[in-house]
Every structure is written in C-alpha cells, then in structure tokens.
Amino acid sequence: MRILILGGSSEATLLAKTLSQRADLDAILSLAGRTKNPAPMPLPTRSGGFGGVEGLVSYLRDERINAVIDATHPFAAQMKRNAAQACAATNTPLCAFTRAPWVAGEGDDWIEVDSAVEAAAALGETPKKNVFLAIGRQQAGAFAGSPHHFVLRAIDAPDAEALPASLDLVLARGPFTVADEIALMRDKKIDILVSKNAGGEATRAKIDAARVEKLPVVMIRRPKTPERPVFENIGDALAWIEAHCPAS
To answer: Which homologous superfamily does the CATH classification assign to the domain defined by 2-99+224-244?
Structure first.
C-alpha cells in the first residue's frame, strides 16, 4: 500500500520515522523544498511542488497512491487546499496529522490577528519598538514598511528585497530552550514578539519566554483548513492508516 506524506513539520518527521519501520507500507515523504538543507529523513523523499491541484492529481494517479496524510506546517494553507481538492478528485482517502494550537494562559498578553499584514498593523507606528519576528522568512515582507526595528530569526536567509529597513538577521535552527529565548530577548532588548500559532512543544519556548519577560505577543491565528479527519495523536493517525491501508 502506497502512502504519500505531505511533510514540513515535526509531525511529518515523527510519522516518517514510524512508517519507515513498516515493511507492509510503501511511504513517500514530500517536502515543499523551501528549506535549503533539510534534515535527512528515513523515507524516500521528493522535494518541490506538484504544480497545483492538477499536478497533484496526476501524481496520485501515476504513483498509485492509496492514501494521503497531510502533515504540512499548520500555516501551509495552499498545500492543504490543493491536497483536499486533489484527493476528492481521485477518491483518495485524506487525513491530517497536526498539533494542537497554543492557547493563551495566565500571564500571557496576546493580541490575536489573522495575517502577517494585520500583525504589522497591530505594532502601530509609535513608539518605536524592538520586535522579535519569529515567523520565518517567507512573510517578512509584510513588515517592510514598518518603522520598528526587527530581529528576524530564520533557518535560511530571506530574499534581499521586501524586508524591514531596520533588521537584525539571526540564522539558526532550533529547537531552542526557554533560557535560549530569554537570552536572545534580553540581548536584543525585545519589546514585543510576533509569532504564528504553530502549536506543539518544539517551538513554544519563545512563548514561554515572553511570559517570563512579561512581553506582549502578536499572535497570528492559523488559517482555515478544509474538512477532513484531523488527528493530534500519532496513535490515532496510525489507526486511520490501518483502516484505509489494510495489510494485504
């Protein structure tokens, strides 16, 4: 049975490691190709887009994929829509394996918005702030016209165009501890954090650090996703696989 994992998250890595030990399943991991040097994976891996919905439909048919698991990043909205449409067109079972979003707790000071553009507006114009921009490099351009100073952390350097005029670039690959994040916030004299609500434990240290430092957080909500079964526990995802890809 052939399974396509749409990757780009720690959940995809966990699923790939688990399924690599299954001789009865032929699993393929697909990555968007945005990270230049992704960590090695234990499954056959393809990199790059499919060419929209039509390209994914062709891939599912040509490769005789029996089921698709969407384990993309919670903010990979276009890929999620494409997967839902392509699987519907080919009658291919589809589920999502993801992580629960973060929820504001005692001591958190969140301003919740729906996009990077809204996040930039939420910063206001004055007073000038030191902003920890912890959203990756893809949407840094939304802050290009802002008067604030930004500390942008990313795995790879962003494109030179469409970046904030006042910027410190920190190239680093996580995971980071709460102590790491507090040290960065203090060193850069951060006044406010901008984050996507990615959820999970792997990247939440910055949220915990902001609470410790009593810093406000502009939190970008997750985009809406298509209707399909969604699992936050790998045991439930594996049970879905068993139901849709029974051993021959």
So the answer is: NAD(P)-binding Rossmann-like Domain (3.40.50.720)
